[in-house]
Each structure stands twice: as structure tokens, then as C-alpha cells.
Amino acid sequence: MAEERLAGAGTFSQEGWRELTLLHAAVSSNVRLAANLLVSPDPVIAREMVRQKEHVRRLVEESSKCHLERLRQGVATSILSSDMHLEIVRALKEVNSLVTTMAYPRLRESGDLLESRLVPAA
User: Fold this and answer.
1) Using an 8 Å Cβ cutoff, are 31 and 99 in contact?
2) N or C: which end of the chain has fewer CB within 10 A?
3) What percent of the chain has pLDDT over 70?
4) Mean pLDDT in the chain?
5) Which residues contact 39 (CB under 8 A, 6 or more apart)?
6) Predicted confidence (pLDDT) at residue 107 exceeds the cutoff of 60
7) What pLDDT does 113 receive?
8) pLDDT tens digit sequence for 39-82
9) How far, in Å, CA of 11 to CA of 6, rounded?
């Protein structure tokens, strides 16, 4: 998809490509964990999936911050590939979120998941 969409837009910056590669590897790791969770409903695997989701969230934030900085600096490759970069980041984040939803029922069953992340009202 990226090659097709970038045909007229050039290439990613070296830094942008590195960020996308790291993000893809993290999401791929979580997909493998999800496959393992299907075979063995081990809460340890489910916990690792949720930890990995947080790791992906941090990678997304860092990539977005760095990408915007490259745009501010006028890096031509980043300007030309900006839409594709942001679209890929969004898609990988969404895939990771969807895959991670498999972990939550197992964590509820094992008592490892809180009902809400909200702080109780005072």
C-alpha cells in the first residue's frame, strides 16, 4: 500500500521509515501474542498484550511528535510523504487496539483487570 501511494510522492525520510518499522514490529509482536492467546488462554500472555499496547501508544506519540518536528524543519521527504506516514501510523495503532481487545476478557476472568480506569469521584 505504501509503495503504491508513494509512487508520486517520493519516499519516507530515513527517520520516518525507522519509526514506521519499529511501530510495525511492535504491532506484529502483539498479533503473534494474540495468536498464542487463542491457543493458550494464559493471563500472562494477556497481560503482555496490554503492556505491548502501551508500548505501541508511546511509539505512536513519539513518531507523531518527531514527524511534526520534521515538517517544521522543512524536511522535503517528510512533507511529501506526510499523509502516508500519518495514515500508516493510524492504521497500525487501530490494528493493535483491535487485536488487544482479545486480552481483556481473559484478564477479567483472572481478576487482573480493573472495572474502570477512572479515579472514583470525590
Assistant:
1) yes
2) C
3) 84
4) 85
5) none
6) yes
7) 79
8) 998 899 999 999 999 999 999 999 989 888 888 888 777 777 77
9) 6
Supply 58's cell numbers.
508511546
Burial class (CB in 10 A: 0-12, 13-18, 19+), 92: buried
> Residue 119: left if φ>0, alpha if ψ -120 to 50, beta else—which one?
beta
Lookup result for grid cell 499523509: 83
Quick one: cell of 6?
508513494
- C-alpha distances out from residue 120 to 50, 97, 115, Å: 22, 25, 11
Grid-cell match 503482555, residue found: 48
- In the predicted model, is pLDDT for residue 85 greater than 90? no
